[in-house]
Amino acid sequence: MTRPSPHCTCRPGATVWLTGLPSAGKSTLARELARRLTPQGRRVEVLDGDENRALLTADLGFSREDRCANVARIGLIAEVLARNGVLALVPVIAPYADAREAVRKRHERSGTPYLEIHVATPVQVCAERDVKGLYARQAAGDLVGLTGVDDPYEAPCPPDLAVPAHRQCPEESAALLLGFLQERGLA
């Protein structure tokens, strides 16, 4: 594994996995944090779940096995980026604790920081937001397997940080997460 020179002034990379229900505010938080960090010269990549589903994991469905494969693929990319000095922000539901744990262990094996952030918006608030119309489709019977409704969501227990995105604006959530990363020397 390649490590930065001890004389390097660059900041270490890390993976910041933002897990939560659909419409919890994961992508909004990741983009706001990236918007704040990029002008400071921080190397940041947002590995958005929807973008990955459209390209990287388009061959996968939504069975438990496929969801775990989705998380593993994105986790690999995040770990490679983070290992090379990039702050990888990963707003991906990742509903199963064991799949997220496998990603954490991959990071541990390479000595790469991994933080699991729970965007802890309750399902009722997510359903009201319904950014993609998923909750309405599920209620109408047009969608089966909606995470947190009729398919499991295993919240981190405990997360490295819980963000109450339903109680604050995206800027406040980003400030909370930024402060957390600064405390750990990652921002």
What does this structure look like?
The chain has 187 residues and is an alpha/beta fold. Helix content is 42%, strand content 12%. Strands 2-3-1-4-5 form a 5-stranded parallel β-sheet, with helices on both faces. Helix 1 (26-37) crosses helix 7 (170-183) and helix 3 packs parallel to helix 4 (97-110). It is globular, with a radius of gyration of 16 Å.
Key features of this structure:
187 residues; alpha/beta; Rossmann fold; sulfate adenylyltransferase (ATP) activity; Adenylyl-sulfate kinase; adenylylsulfate kinase activity; ATP binding
- The number of helical segments is 7
CATH superfamily: P-loop containing nucleotide triphosphate hydrolases
Query: What is the helix content?
Result: 40-55%
The secondary-structure class comes to alpha/beta
What's the CATH class, please? Answer: Alpha Beta
CATH architectural type: 3-Layer(aba) Sandwich
Question: Biggest β-sheet, characterized?
Answer: 5 strands, parallel
How many separate domains make up the residues?
Answer: 1
DSSP, total strands: 5
Distance between the termini: 22 Å
Radius of gyration: 16 Å
Cross-sheet strand order for the largest sheet: 2-3-1-4-5
SSE topology string: EHEHHEHEHHEH
Shape: globular
For this structure, the CATH topology is: Rossmann fold
Strand content: 5-15%
- Low-confidence parts: 1-9
